[in-house]
Amino acid sequence: MHFQRTLKKAIALEGLGLHTGRNIRMSIHPAPPEHGIVFVRSDLSRGVRIPARLEFVVDTTLATTLGREGAVVSTVEHLMSALFGTGVDNALIEVEGPEIPILDGSAAPFVRLIRSTGTVLQPRLRKYLVVQKPFNISDGDRKVSLLPCPEFMISFGIQFDHPAIGNQFLKVRLSEEDYDREISRARTFGFLRDVEAMKAQGYALGGSLENALVLDEKEVLNSGGLRYQDEFVRHKVLDSVGDLSLIGFRLLGHFVAHKAGHSLNHKLLKHLMDSPVGWKIMSASKMEHGEEGYWLPPSHAEASERIPATA
Q1: 177-184 contacts, C-beta under 8 A, 24 or more apart
Q2: Which residues, at least 6 apart from 224, have a Cβ–Cβ distance to it below 8 Å?
Q3: Does the active-site annotation cover 289?
Q4: Digit-coded pLDDT (tens) for 135-171
Q5: Which pLDDT does position 292 carry in this prediction?
């Protein structure tokens, strides 16, 4: 059975915000079943709670930003991606600032912390959003689609007129093992020529070679080089996992993207949620053992854990 999960205990960390340049402290706490992922701006006296749900997305410029009642938390996509990739369904995240720390620019530091802390099964079955018809959004040559599929898959293509990137394509099945191995370590990237303009607009104030891949006109400037030969497209997949998790359910469908980003991802998900005849919500109990032809990826160590009593 695929049960909901939360952390065994709280995790605390701090680091620079990529866009604000501020040092930000945050903590991730266990949460009860059906709680979902919720952010709290703990530095604000009113402690605004911001659910990590599509309806609370307020900006998609260079990052995904959630907001409610004037309080915002930006650059949530790497953490959301890591929570999805490690199987965490329920967590309360306290943030002492308007942005999630960028750490090394990938999801790997979050994944390591969650894996070292561990997760626990909860007495509620997961629910899945099952895509039943194609959904498509395009903007010029940029395109995104969600297609019916008995498992969660992502196909992503990028195209940059740069000798270190060029055309890259990746198709991956999103189990936890695949996520850890193939996706989690891919870092965000940017071009040196754009840095000054971005900073003038209030972005990338905390960016450096320590938390992003940076390219000049010819090559990658980071001394350690790439973690994957096609790290750029893998990071796009990482971002997409984080954005897709904002529907609030595990997804069974095939996400296909070409030259897409946060804005187009958000438009596709809004189109999806505005069209309820094209999808349905199903409990894991109806899909176990391929009863309806769906493939649910195994969770780390779930087979060896005590199965909780369901309510």
Answers
A1: 177/300, 178/297, 179/84, 179/85, 179/86, 179/241, 180/85, 180/111, 182/234, 183/81, 183/85, 183/107, 183/234, 183/237, 183/238, 183/241, 184/81, 184/82, 184/85, 184/106, 184/107, 184/108, 184/111, 184/238
A2: none
A3: no
A4: 999 999 999 999 999 999 999 999 999 999 999 999 9
A5: 60
The answer to whether the beta carbons of residues 17 and 206 sit under 8 Å apart is yes
Rounded mean pLDDT, 43-57? 94
**pLDDT of 308 strictly over 90:** no
2-15: pLDDT as tens digits:
899 999 999 999 99
| Mean predicted lDDT score pLDDT of the chain | 93
The single-letter code of the amino acid at 253 is: G
Q: Active-site residue among 254, 262, 289, 300?
A: 262
Instruction: Read off the pLDDT band of 303 (50, 70, 90).
Output: very low
What are the C-alpha distances in Å from 97 to residues 15, 21, 57?
11, 11, 17
The CATH number for 128-304, chosen from 1.10.510.10, 3.60.21.10, 3.30.1700.10, 3.10.450.50, is 3.30.1700.10
Domain with CATH 3.30.1700.10 in the chain: 128-304
Q: Which residues pair with 39 in a beta bridge?
A: 50, 93
Give me the CATH topology for the region 3-122: Ribosomal Protein S5; domain 2 (3.30.230)
- Is-contact 119 87, C-beta < 8 A? yes
Which residues face 11 on adjacent strands? 28
CB 36 within 8 A of CB 124: no
For 203-250, the pLDDT digits (tens) are 888 999 999 999 999 999 999 999 999 999 999 999 999 999 999 999
